[in-house]
């Protein structure tokens, strides 16, 4: 939502990064792939003995469907018709499918489709809950219902627009999309990589195991309570927990609690994390992003390449090359 647009003068809750520029939106009448399944199916045993395939992760997509297609195609995960061709490979999306970019619903539909196709091929495609999923769920369920925030009274609708909400996404958002988002896990462990969306330690507030955290957040969203959902959203907008002097200590605490040897996260665009731009939208110019950013004594990997600021949409195979 650009400066001077309706609602721009409303209080900005703590931790928000307003969108400074308008982004193109697509017509609500555009063709949308028909989702195959709402829930991610369980992987089938892979052909030839059930061995697991290579592991890939995807950073924040934020509605940039064409860039996502190109990145997945370049990694040999899909074909030119958007179908899974990677056999028993494993693919994790780190959340934030919508907002700021032109086709968030198209992104969700593609992820849902690939989830079914990958499982049928003996692999899997799964996704984590990002703060923008929480924001979109809240905007759909609660609209202008007032919620308390550190900056005064706010609403999910105002926050969603302030943070790049696209009206075409809301027009095309259906209940099965909301149900799918509301059942996403918040964290996962894959090959000694602790996968999370946000570079925050707020996960520790929801339980001492991955299962406990995921169950607590899923349960919270079943309550359909505006303030409770707002509290989740607020906590998972926090960032930079692993960046500064105490960052490695914070990373070690998360790893010691939930397992894994390295945290892999999205949420904070790499140029913003490095202080190369002044905001999440990067009005200072297009940054140079060449790949994931490894930091915090090599205990953390940032995967948000800053596609919203003309950076790069990252799809990387794990473990990263030494």
Describe this structure in words.
This protein is an alpha/beta fold and 322 residues long. It contains ten helices and eleven strands. The chain has a five-stranded mixed β-sheet with strand order 6-7-8-10-9. A four-stranded mixed β-sheet has the order 3-2-1-11. α3 runs antiparallel to α8. It is globular, with a radius of gyration of 18 Å. The model is unreliable at 1-49 (pLDDT under 50).
Quick synopsis:
The protein is an alpha/beta fold and 322 residues long.
Top keywords for this entry?
322 residues; alpha/beta; 10 helices; 11 strands; globular; disordered N terminus
Radius of gyration: 18 Å
The portion of residues forming beta strands comes to 5-15%
Largest sheet: 5 strands, mixed
What is the total tally of β strands?
11
Spell out the helices and strands N to C.
EHEHEHEEHHHEEHHHEHEEE
Q: What's the average pLDDT? A: 87
Which shape, going by the Cα principal axes? globular
User: Spans of 5+ residues with little confidence (pLDDT < 50)?
Assistant: 1-49
- Give the helix/strand class: alpha/beta
Strand order of the largest sheet: 6-7-8-10-9
Secondary structure tally, helices:
10
- Please estimate the helix content: 25-40%
Distance between the termini: 41 Å
Indicate the topology.
Elements (H helix, E strand, L loop, with lengths): L54 E4 L6 H10 L15 E4 L10 H17 L3 E4 L3 H12 L3 E4 L2 E4 H7 L4 H6 L2 H8 L4 E4 L2 E4 L13 H13 L3 H10 L11 H12 L3 E4 L4 H4 L19 E3 L4 E3 L12 E4 L4
């Amino acid at each position: 939502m650009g400066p001077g647009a309706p609602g721009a003068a409303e209080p900005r809750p703590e931790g928000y990064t307003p969108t400074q520029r308008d982004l193109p939106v697509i017509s609500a009448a555009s063709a949308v792939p028909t989702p195959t399944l709402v829930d991610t199916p369980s992987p089938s045993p892979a052909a030839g003995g059930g061995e697991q395939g290579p592991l890939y992760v995807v950073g924040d997509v934020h509605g940039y469907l064409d860039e996502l297609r190109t990145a997945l195609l370049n990694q040999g995960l899909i074909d030119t018709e958007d179908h899974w061709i990677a056999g028993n490979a494993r693919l994790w999306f780190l959340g934030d499918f919508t907002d700021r970019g032109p086709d968030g619903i198209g992104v969700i539909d593609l992820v849902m489709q690939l989830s079914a196709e990958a499982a049928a091929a003996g692999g899997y495609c799964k996704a984590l809950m990002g703060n923008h999923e929480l924001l979109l769920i809240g905007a759909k369920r609660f609209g202008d219902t007032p919620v308390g925030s550190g900056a005064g009274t706010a609403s999910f609708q105002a926050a969603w627009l302030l943070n790049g909400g696209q009206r075409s996404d809301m027009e095309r958002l259906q209940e099965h999309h909301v149900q799918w988002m509301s059942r996403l896990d918040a964290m996962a462990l894959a090959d000694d990589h602790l996968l999370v969306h946000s570079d925050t330690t707020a996960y520790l507030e929801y339980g001492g195991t991955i299962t406990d955290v995921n169950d607590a957040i899923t349960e919270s969203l079943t309550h359909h309570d505006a303030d409770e959902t707002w509290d989740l959203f607020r906590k998972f907008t926090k960032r930079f927990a692993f960046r500064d002097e105490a960052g490695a200590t914070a990373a070690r605490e998360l790893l010691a609690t939930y397992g894994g040897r390295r945290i892999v996260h999205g949420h904070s665009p790499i140029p913003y994390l490095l202080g190369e731009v002044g905001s999440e939208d990067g009005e200072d110019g297009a940054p140079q992003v060449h790949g994931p950013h490894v930091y915090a004594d090599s205990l953390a990997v940032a995967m948000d390449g800053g596609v919203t600021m003309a950076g790069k949409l990252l799809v990387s195979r794990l473990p990263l090359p030494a």
